[in-house]
Amino acid sequence: MTKGRSPLKTAPIGVFDSGVGGLSVWREIVHLLPGESMLYLADQAHVPYGARSPREVAALTHAAVAWLLDQGAKLIVIACNTASAAALTSLRQQWPDVPIVGMEPAIKPASQATKTGQVAVLATPGTLRASRFSNLVERFANGVQVYTLMGTGLVEMVERHELSGPTVERKLQKVMIPIQDVAVDYLVLGCTHFPFLRESIQKVVGENVVLVDPAPAVARQTRRVLQNRQLQSHANGPVSWRFVTTGDLPAFRTSTKRLLGDILASPEKPISFQALDKKKLHFSGA
Ligand code: DGL
Predict the structure, then answer these.
(1) N or C: fewer beta carbons within 10 Å in the chain?
(2) Could you confirm whether 191 is annotated as catalytic?
(3) Is the same domain home to 91 and 223?
(4) Please, are residues 54 and 29 in contact by the beta-carbon 8 Å criterion?
């Protein structure tokens, strides 16, 4: 879809992340909107984004969105907190006619729900250092103490499909040190990779801490935007699910299948996996 052209209702929703993390958002969208075709792009040639400069992340994200639009996507979901923090504003400036749904750490619902007045946000350094994040805290924390936890190295673990076991737990224990002696009752998962570590995180922080994943809210927002723009697909025919990576295709196929499990077992949907040469993303800064 290019600027000024009206997209087809049957065109896919384009979902973007640096890697497999955005699949935690993809699955919520598919659950809510089973009649939509989906195009998922993982920029695994450049993962992790969290340690890159905001300029680099913004350039990579713009290139990815340009590619998704070129493929005909009717709506874009930036299923990555780090990319949203670095690029959401400039993306909307570059493509004012394109509906773009972004992510932000769910500080508002956590701050409204906390009983102890202490919440924590687990995210990448890129997300936590962004002005978008400090603005969120300023607007929504409302006197609640917000602890920030840098999830350095966790994205790579999920990419390697290391989701549980002693090494993962040891790593998580280290990350949680700043809150080990405080009564945090809500922990915001501020990176789309982290819902895949949910069980291990819960084990480390204990059962009394509620983990907040914004993915279902992002799926509802996607539905709202489609409805408002009258872009919802009413197709009864088969929808397609396409998964594309700039990284290693066999590894991506394997981890996508493991992370999505039964959802991909649905026999009637055309599902395809494809590699994309990272040079096709027209990014010259890495
Ligand atoms: N899933 C991305 C996020 O939500 C991970 C960023 C990264 O690649 O470090 O922030």
Answers:
(1) C
(2) yes
(3) yes
(4) no
